[in-house]
């Protein structure tokens, strides 16, 4: 199953208080970036985030789910209606996220 653009638009609107939020399509799903670092994605119309220490601390009871077969578990964000919580979650995660990968140059 793939995600709906409408759900992506809803999540992006909920995160619109943050500067530097963007998304990218990937095989019917959407990766989510904050200031160029991937913090999560939309998979099967679910907002999943990387299980950083901050995210686990802010959502200790969050279910761990697989975005797709063979992937690492991520945390399901159930409280998508709370814009303030979402912004704080993403801000808290930022320093724990890996640096963006270098883009390969075609020669």
Mind explaining what this structure looks like?
There is one protein chain. With 107 residues, the chain is of the alpha+beta class. It has a single domain (5-96), classed as YgaC/TfoX-N like chaperone (Yope Regulator, Chain: A). Helix content is 25%, strand content 26%. The chain has a six-stranded antiparallel sheet with strand order 1-2-3-4-6-5. Strand 3 (37-43) and strand 4 (46-49) form a beta hairpin. The chain is globular. The model has no long low-confidence stretch (mean pLDDT 94). It comes from Ruminobacter amylophilus. This is TfoX N-terminal domain-containing protein.
The CATH architecture classification is 2-Layer Sandwich
**CATH topology annotation:** Yope Regulator, Chain: A
Q: Rounded to an integer, what's the Rg over CA atoms?
A: 13 Å
| Structural class based on helices, strands and sheet pairing | alpha+beta
């Amino acid at each position: 199953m793939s995600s709906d653009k409408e759900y992506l638009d809803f999540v992006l609107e909920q995160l619109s208080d943050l500067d530097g939020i963007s998304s990218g399509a990937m095989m019917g799903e959407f990766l989510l970036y904050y200031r160029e670092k991937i913090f999560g994605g939309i998979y099967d119309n679910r907002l999943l985030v990387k299980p950083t220490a901050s995210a686990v601390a802010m959502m200790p009871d969050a279910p761990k789910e697989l975005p797709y077969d063979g992937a690492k578990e991520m945390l399901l964000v159930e409280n998508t209606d709370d814009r303030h919580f979402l912004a704080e979650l993403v801000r808290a995660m930022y320093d724990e996220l890996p640096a963006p990968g270098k883009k390969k140059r075609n020669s």
